[in-house]
Amino acid sequence: MLRFLLTRIGLVIPTFLGIILLTFVLIRLVPGDPVEVRVGERGISPERHAQLLHDMGLDRPLYVQFFDYVGGVLQGDLGTSVVTQRPVMDEFLTLFPATLELAVFAMLFAVLIGLPAGVLAAVKRGSIYDHAVMGTSLTGYSMPIFWWGLLLILLFSVTLDWTPVAKRLSDDYFVDEVTGFMLIDTLLSDEPGSFLNALHHLVLPTIVLGTVPLAVIARMTRSAMLEVLGEDYIRTARAKGLSSLRVVAIHALRNALVPVVTVIGLQVGTLMGGAILTESVFSWPGIGKWLVESIARRDYPALQGGVLVIAALVMTINLVVDLLYGLLNPRIRHRR
Amino acid sequence: MTDITIPSAAEPVSRPISPSREVWLSLKANKGAMAGLTVIVLLILAAVFADLVAPFSYSAVFKECVTKACPPIWQEGSDSRFILGADSVGRDLLSRLIYGARYSLFIGTIVVTISLAAGILFGLLSGFFRGVVDILVMRAMDIILSVPSLLLALAIVAILGSGLLNAMIAVAITYIPHYARLARAAVLTELPKDYVTASRVAGAGTLRLMLSTVLPNCLAPLIVQATLSFSTAILDAAALGFLGYGAQAPTPEWGTMLADARTLIRSMPWVVTFPGLAILITVLAFNLLGDGLRDALDPKLKR
Fold first, then answer.
1. Which helix (H) or strand (E) holds B103?
2. Gap from B54 CA to chain A (nearest CA, Å)
3. pLDDT digits (tens, 9 = 90+) for B104-134
4. What's domain B31-301's architecture?
5. Which of B129, B131, B84 is nearest to B273 (CA)?
6. How many C-beta atoms lie closer than 10 Å to residue A181's C-beta?
7. What count of other Cβ atoms lies within 10 Å of the Cβ of residue B248?
8. In angstroms, what separates the C-alpha of B127 from chain A's closest C-alpha?
9. Which of A3, A183, B53, B134 is a good FRET partner for A334, with 20 to 30 A between their CA atoms?
10. What is the ipTM of this complex?
């Protein structure tokens, strides 16, 4: 087990260093003067230009700059935003709860619907229900989610007037930011009705962001269940006279869950990509919207830091999933 | 005495079905795949003959639809010339959608070609040379994979600058690892086989071994992946267009059309509905075909 753990972690470290290198190179590929790119100031005197170049350490050899950057990153220093002049890490941490809250809800939505739908489709293989689930999930998988968001706004907000169009909370409420998670903050505040209002704002973005993971989970659950249901031990369980429900829910699902959990873990990257679009459509003040705006404002340090942290996050989660998988499945653990 | 019939040499012996015909037969039996293929053929025809099929030019402006909105023909106040209505600038929506098919198919083709070629190259290098080359290439692929593809594509476009060409390059880069990994895995299973050894013993050089001995036997998973990523390429490029970093404004690219239409969701909902529907149908068609191809080419994966 220790050997397995160490090899997996050993594989991640060079990749992480590679990502740091990638973001380091990325910002240097931006055409134009490095001082303008980093500071956003234009038309400054040559003396000031040289001074800034020196202050930022850009006049030193590249490899020194790189090690300096790695050192900074390892201490949580991602540079300073050109636009707000605040540390990129602070900006990220301020906005991250909004994205995390949305992502958690989207994932819950996807798992709570996708898992049972996939199980039922496998159990009733070949039925109308199976075809409906597979058809719907392929459609969900093919969905341009930015359009899906607009369509839901058109139906539920514009036509039916059921849900709000944008943001996390109506302007009528004033809620202090304590945790950054709107549902918790509204509960802590003494504004009556603000919790429900925040929940209301979550509905459409949750559906939009959860659609693709939902489709993937339903498809994966179905195929994993079909595989397991054909095994001998399932026949044995049925022959013993166990109820169908017990065979499916306890004997089969448990083993089918292993690949499904992996897929759920891999959806985190999809969620981060989807958050860019979902947050843009719903003006959701999270990381995704921030990244798009950073690009529009040519705030390259913010983009650089954002890409780095998200990649690190995705990698960490993939590593955890990988380790869990090894923990659950001895065949993986002992394979060289 | 029992009669023993001996098949005479003249009797026709059923010839084995050729592999490509087998794939086609299996594909033909798959309703979803055939539906997808039909849509794709129609799209290709629409794209090729857009000048003949489209009622108007994609840039033709009709002033009467600027002052007063022209909805689709089944709604009140419509103009019978514009079946799906006109956009806010007074251009026929149906014509723009038909011309838009050109862009989507073009995007898919270019992205898949670039990423497939680069992926095969990296996969072959990795699989054939192993050692340091393998480690370097595969770690580089891991790095690309750890950044969500849309985010990486956005970051690349932020550096290269907005535009259709750069968007296609950016999206293509994010797909390379998938092909590289598939190609490498296929190469590794093919290399120890006897026919490769035979070819090697017969004196084939590395390049010949790579391209004409091993590669053709590695194509099946790559073809499936190519079809499936054709659809994601269309989706991702449209997403970039929607965010404002793909094809630029007057271009009738579907994602870009949606970006322009966002603010009109209340007043002109049809401008939002149809381009997205076009994207969905196209992507769905390619996914259906891709699923069917996977089943046809790889019976092991059939469920």
1. helix B93-129
2. 24
3. 999 999 999 999 999 999 999 998 888 888 9
4. Orthogonal Bundle (1.10)
5. B84
6. 18
7. 15
8. 18
9. B134
10. 0.86
